[in-house]
């Protein structure tokens, strides 16, 4: 399979944009939370879950989706939202709790939604899968070739909603794709301590019309190729799929997580095989893009993110800033 240069450049720019967005959120989230960490204080109050390192999972499949396809995300949703084409200004304003946000600042980081691109964030573990089943059922009833994609962490594959949803999706041959982002930890519990199967794509064998796929080593191009098979299969009406991608979470389960469950050398070793840097080197070595082209893509991504953060900071709160300070401080 040949991937067009346009699509490859979109994938790189989008992954870079996601990474820069998450890195910028680390800084924004830390404002006002020192010297003693206070989850309710600061510019962005509340819990914060970032997906730095997991960009290939979102970009690889969203490269095949249109605005008519549905995406649901868990509590770590920014990479999915950006890859699906969410309004970045309004998403950032929502996270900052501003009136101009997607939910007028009342949903926050774990409850993002944008009906214009059929994106929603279920928030709690596995909650987005039944929503995606509903969207897939609508597509089948309306005789549309729409696809519904539910992103989950590997821990959510042990939840009842995962199996109940797959049962119905297989029974009715719905165009559902569940993407399992295996970042090795369910909060702080290693996968091998909680799951009795080596990879969740194998669970598809329990459902007659389901197909399972596995993507190794956080590879965005392999994720793209695998996703193409699952998406085309769904559009043909052949039933649901499970894609598990071996990915990596560079940061803790939440910002402020002491990460006592991780070896201190784990993250540095993972960063040595960073998917964005690997893709960049591949583009240059294979003549897909020059250093100048890549620099332009990075500048485009940075400018869009910087604009979104500026928009969020300049937007007004639903209530007066003084009232919010009384509420959170």
Automatic annotation (TrEMBL):
The UniProt record lists the keyword Protein transport: no
GO molecular function, one term: pyruvate dehydrogenase (acetyl-transferring) activity
Cofactor(s) essential for the protein: thiamine diphosphate
Protein's UniProt keywords contain rRNA-binding: no
Matches recorded under InterPro entries: DH_E1 (IPR001017), PDH_E1_Alpha_Subunit (IPR050642), THDP-binding (IPR029061)
Pfam families assigned: E1_dh
Any Gene Ontology biological process: pyruvate decarboxylation to acetyl-CoA
All copies of domain Dehydrogenase E1 component, residue ranges: 46-319
Origin superkingdom: Bacteria
The entry's keywords: Oxidoreductase, Thiamine pyrophosphate
Full protein name: Thiamine pyrophosphate-dependent dehydrogenase E1 component subunit alpha
Species the sequence originates in: Terrihalobacillus insolitus
